[in-house]
Structure formats: structure tokens, C-alpha cells
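Record pair follows.
FIRST:
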Amino acid sequence: MSKMERIEPLLTAAQIRNRVTELAAQITKDYQDKEILLLGTLKGAYVFIADLSREIDRPMEIDFLKVSSYGDSTSPISQVAFDQRPSTELSDKHVLLVEDIVDTGHTLAYLRRFLESQNPASLKVCALLDKPSRREAKLPESEYIGFQIPDKFVVGYGLDYGQRYRNMPYVGELIFEEVNKW
């Protein structure tokens, strides 16, 4: 027996494009007299932040941070650590943290604590995907959510499994199947 991977589409490229446009319009309205610092989480949010930033009609800076919490597993771990901190001074900035997915909430709770300690003028969260059924950490509601999804392991549109599938223009459930090999 060996394992075979297949992907079952969950969100189409068109659905994602439409929702990114809607989120960007709301963000543009909410920050109408402010400059924004978009702070993306690497590597998963790189596609989302690129598309979102092109749709927001506000002056902005863009920076990235990188934390580790998944590795190459399909199950998140509760330990979170920085691999790369933002290079931009966050004090007195209107920070919009751009996340690929909020799952157990451990990563987002860790990032919120860190970012709040940097004294931003404001801090809000924009997540492409949200899995509220998996929440373990106590979190305030994210201000901007693309899609709430069921408890499935998803890839595509920046999300990966073992560094693969990030380049897919849609989000799909990664399914492992046992296969008899002759």
C-alpha cells in the first residue's frame, strides 16, 4: 500500500478574486484617511497580500514576517517562533496583518501579542481563510475574513503541503488515499 494525494477544489480562482476585491474595497473605505502597513505572513500569505495590495486604493507600505508552526505536517503545532521579524518600525503605524489561514489560533495569538507590544496606531487582521471549528486559542474576531471553511487540510493560493501546491490559483482540500500498488 502506498499513499496517493489528490486535491478536491474548495474555492475557485474566480471566487477568491471576487472576495479579494470585496475585502480591498472595505479596507479602502475603513482606512480612507490613513496610510496602511500591510504586514504579510510568509510564506502562505504571499499570493493573497500581492493580490490584496493591488486592489486597495490607499497609500501603503508592505513588509513581511515569518513564523514557524506547521512544518511539513498536516496538523498544526502549538509552539510558534519567529523566523523573520518585520524590518519596518511598527510604532504609530496602522498595521493590517495579512494571514493566509487562521486555524487553531496559536500563531495569530502569538503575532497579536508581539505586534501590540510594538505600539502600532492600530492593529487589524485580514485572513483569507478561517477555520473556527479548530480554534484552541482565545482570539478577538478578525476584522476581515475572506472565507470560513470546514475542518479540512487545504492547499493552493499560497498554502502548501511540504512546500508544494502554493502556485495553484484556487484553494483545494488535500486528500490522502491508500492505493494498492501491484
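SECOND:
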Amino acid sequence: MRTVSQVMTELKKKGSAQTRKTYARHGIPDEMFGVSIANLKVIAKTIKGNQSLACELYETGNYDAMYLAGIVADGSQMTKKQLESWVKNATCAMISEYTVPGVAGESPHAETLAMKWIDSRKESIASSGWCTYAEVLATRPDEELDLAEIKSLLNRIAKDIQNAPNKVRYTMNGFVIAAGAYVKPLLKQAKQVAKKIGAVSVDMGDTACKVPLASAYIEKIEKAGRVGKKRKTVKC
């Protein structure tokens, strides 16, 4: 059984200055080795199924280890307390918007936690909430979804997005796209909300990243005949 120390040593060897430079532009803190996603996935295969190790890796506070933890961890095995700790200790947007939701979305507590986090005054936690619920939309059958609750969230976005914190605007926009792309009964409302919010302004920092136009994105999915096509996971 591999230890945290052994994995951290391997991560350090796989890090590169160029990747650290790229990550820094995306707002990732200095506590990282700069390991590419491709290399993280290779390491993940060697520790797949080791839930306790994944949790220990997350607790290191090292970005590469935390991202790796998200790939390996099984959210369905995690308690509310563990997931609350993960969202609270997320160190950057990559962790709060991808790693935490990727794991939390697998939990039977996903919707409950998402709704709680969405109301948080902390930008990173609210962003995690919207992303976690978006994962639920992408992976759960429509008949298991609370359509009334999702409709209310779409209405909330239409009303509040312009005054929401920077990254919360980004994740709200993503939620609208998820509703239109993955939930057939809500396609019409999602398109209406997407049209209403239009181009969402978000400061993406020193990167070339852009905020997708929700109306165009949903239209593209619709034309391709892929509305309602669910995914097994949104982890990447």
C-alpha cells in the first residue's frame, strides 16, 4: 500500500517549471509542484480505490495532491462532514469548481450540500455549490431530479447573476448551460434564461479563458441532438 509520502515524492518528480508558470496564471497558489493533468491521471491509476489515501492527499494542501485526490476519491463513500471540509479548504478555483464538485456530485447528499453552498457568502463555496448541482444535472436521470427546485434556481440566476461575485457569475452561467444541455424538460426555460442573461462578464485573470455564451452553447447541443444525453462523470 502506497503512502502519502511516496505519492508526494512522485508528484514532485513529475512537476515542471513551465506547468507551474501556467498554473500560476490560472490563480493556483504557490504550494504546488506543477504536475500536468495527464501525469496526474497516470498516478491516479496506481492508487485507484484507495479512499483513505485520497483523503490524506487532499489534506496536504498541495494543489497537485488535492487535484489527484479528487480523481481518486469516491464521493459516494464520503460523509457530509468530509465534503464540508473539502469545500472549506479548497485553495483555488480549480479545486472549488472542479475537484470538490466532481466528488460531491457523486454523493447522495449532493443536492442538499449544493443548495447550502450556493447560499454561502464565500465566493469559492458558492461556486462549488453551483458546480456541484450542475454535475447532478449532468449525471442523474431526469426522473430523479427535483425539477421545481431547478426551475427556481434558473429564475434566481436570471434575477441575480449580474450582481453576483465574479466566479459565481461564471458558475451560474455554467449551471444554465447544464440545465439546457442535460435536462430535457427544462430546455425551454434554460434557453429563455440564457437569452435573458446574455454575455456574462467575468474577470478570468491573466488567461485566455473565455466565458461561454450560454444561449449559443445550448443551441449547439440542441442542433447536435444531444440534449438530455447524460454523462457517467464530469471528473476530468
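COMMENT: The chain has a mean pLDDT of 96.
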